[in-house]
Predict the 3D structure of the following.
Amino acid sequence: MKKSNLKILYFVLLGFFMFFPFISNAQAAILAALFGDKVASEKFNVSMEIGVPLTNYSNIDGNSPNLGINFGIAGNLKINERWSLSPTAYFLSKRSFDIESFSLNSGDAYLDNIYQNVPATISIDYITLPIFLYYNIPNSKWRLGLAPQVSFKQNVDAKFSSDIGKFEQAVGIHTNDIDYGLIANLSYYLRYKRHGKGLYVSLRYSQSFTDAFKNSFIDGNNRGHYLSFHISLPFITDELAQKNLDTGPTP
């Protein structure tokens, strides 16, 4: 099968995975592994994307950030020697934070009394779709990136803790369905790793422009932001990998 046809098939499958959230994260990894090397060219490659965000929210008293995870794949299109475009799909984009004092509102008077003003952890699962525009800094291994992103809510849980134990409540009805934001990125390219296929190590900052929660759950402005450590694992051709190794530093 020609590479052009493989690229079309890849994007069809990528779109299918984006809009059918029951597809597992393992299947997303299989997609990248199966098609990554086959669709790679000098101008295009697929990469596996893994990040660990530390998320916080504005104007929520007593909240502290928790570690989450971003996992997905990207299609990387080289525009020229300086610029590239990377549509990305995080099939798993988990954001989490703790609240020192929060109250259960389940409608059950007994449970609500037990879990009044207790510590809680709130976790939100999204499917997130950023589109990165990268600029490669001349004569360096650094690149800068900026991406608008849209996130689609999947699962939202609140875990309450008291002296008698923990209680978990699904709170998706109190969470807005879509979150819009922007990501700023700084990457360093480790060209010689992975036998010349390389990897990008990145620091990212994301800012949401919409409230995560409805006023029925948390009053007022509550926009999320996170700082993330991120790794991109590109699948490039063997020829380009060998070229990277051939231009490597002399021992």
